[in-house]
């Protein structure tokens, strides 16, 4: 039972955290693990996973008074666990005690846990047989920890939705397209440099054209004023007309 106090501390840490901590139940959350799962914000459960609730188990050694103390401790722990489950499920504590603390192991599928309010959602995973025993479920999910998950197909399916990869049928097809993308990406810095150079040359050309145009307008006005066609008073009018006529 002392171990249960130790395992209750993660519950307190997670429950009291101000962060939204998502908990995923991938395989089996049994006994105290099912309690820790309660503090997920939210808690998501694989469609093929299992929760298990049962009475507190423990052992002690000593005289009759020590035995009685052990029983009182177990009963106190059960009362606390009943309150935790009841709070999560929106039920009365005594109702929870009668349902799940009767000395038996109670295994719950994801849909059952969701209906009871123990979890917030269900996500898909590779299926396991519906009639699997708890030991078989544990072994299936434990094996997955020791081999790569089949994420490659999912990623390829996602790529196929993009026009660039829609005609890819094999891994080699995907790799070839990715190689082309890498080649194209490698050209980007050079293209950026070329664009910058051309913009610079264009500005020089525009600046020179503006300067030449301004000089030509000035000469035209100077000549007109010199031969008496315009004077200093009318010159601004013609300057504006020439500027608008560019």
Automatic annotation (TrEMBL):
Keyword list (alphabetical) reads:
Hydrolase, Protease
- Biological processes per GO annotation: protein quality control for misfolded or incompletely synthesized proteins
Coiled-coil residue spans: none
Q: Name one Pfam family in it.
A: CLP_protease
CDD domains the UniProt entry points to: S14_ClpP_1
Q: What InterPro entries does the record tag this protein with?
A: ClpP/crotonase-like_dom_sf (IPR029045), ClpP/TepA (IPR023562)
Q: Which GO terms of the molecular function aspect are on file?
A: ATP-dependent peptidase activity; ATPase binding; serine-type endopeptidase activity
GO CC terms of this entry: endopeptidase Clp complex
Gene3D superfamilies in the cross-refs: 2-enoyl-CoA Hydratase, Chain A, domain 1 (3.90.226.10)
Q: What is this protein called?
A: Clp protease
